[in-house]
Amino acid sequence: xxxxxxxxxGAKVPKARLLLFAFGDFAFNLYWQSIMLYxxxxxxxxxxxxxxxxxxIYTAASVWDGIANFVAGAVTDRHRPKRGYGSVLVIGSVxxxxxCILTYSPPLASGFWGLAGVxxxxxxxxxxxxxxxxxxxxxxxxxxxxxxxxxxxxxARMLFGTLAWVAVARGTVPLGAWLAGDMVPARAYLGAALxxxxxxxxxxxxxxxxxxxxxxxxxxxxxxxTPAALTALAANRAxxxxxxxxxxxxxxxxxxxxxxxxxxxxxxxxxxAGQWALAWMGLVSSMAVPLWMLLQxxxxxxxxxxxxxxxxxxxxxxxxxxHIGAAAAMQAWxxxxxxxxxxxxxxxxxxxPNTIEYGERATGLRVEGAVFGVAALLQRVAxxxxxxxxxxxxxxxxxxxxxxQSPATLAAMRWTIxxxxxxxxxxxxALMLLNPLGRGAHARIVRDLGGG
Length: 452
Fold this sequence. Notes:
Radius of gyration: 21 Å
Shape: globular
Oligomer: single chain
Helix content: over 70%
Structural class: mainly alpha
Number of strands: 0
Number of helices: 16
Strand content: under 5%
Distance between the termini: 14 Å
């Protein structure tokens, strides 16, 4: 039995509907890229928090984010909304926007209570984000069961996401300063958060209102219990190996990306060049995604991972062996690295929905929300680990915010930036070798399940 009104197995979903769904990622990335690119820097440079304190708050919030995503995944599986996941986007978009604004609001008190307020706002935002993002991701498994459609959605989502990256990277400071009326960092960041929240809320309401789930999913299958879903995921080799590989890659990528603003400020002495570097990285991501999409059709998604990781490893080896002291040269290197990194993200998001059918065939249980909830949990843990590593590395090097760093401190900071990502990406390749979703594997699984 299939869902009422769903297309017959194998029916193609209009590209316009796939694009409408993918547009939601622009909204989510206005929030996510702000948190990833600027929040730690905001803590240390605008609020003057010690690096260890800022990293501790960020790490704790990332772990909490993972827990919130896991809970959201379990709720998504157990309580599928009658009007579809789009209704969740409409209802939750305003609270999420308010939580983002609160995250960038300066503390109302000093000392312990001020720090507690900063942490609480961050925790609240992460919970609100998970409550919307997990249903949105689960909705992606119901847009289409076709592997190529899912790859198209993954690519389109990344294009919209990278456009949001550019908007956040280059727009945060000037937009915030314009709205605030001055260049005081704390007020500028708050102004930018307000702009992003308004735009993102409007987009999520649009997507939630007009985007429908189309895939034919058995209506009679009862939702799995949380223990049953976790047991099924643990037995899903495709899911486990994909996520372990991505965790390793995310630790390395996060250490690199979070160090960009610090590198330009303290190694090169040009803050504006760092903001431009982030913007160029986002722009090249949007240009590289279509190329990775074309390569995926020729090589398969799993093979794409190895190619992207190999390019990243080569770039990091170059950085480790050659000191880059000019702004333009560092920008060029970061752009080249980002063009390769986006291939890893594309491969992951193209493969993740396919682990649902792999697990269904292996265990007899179809798990959707938990797939995205647990994947998000693991990614957030990886981001937290990376932030802690960066904080400990910089702190042990002797880093102190807003002062000139000694040559010894800069050298130690540079090794943290180079060696950690290099080791993590090599580990990700070893883990991906164990993944069973080679070229054509998912199509065979869908046929075995009678899905087309």
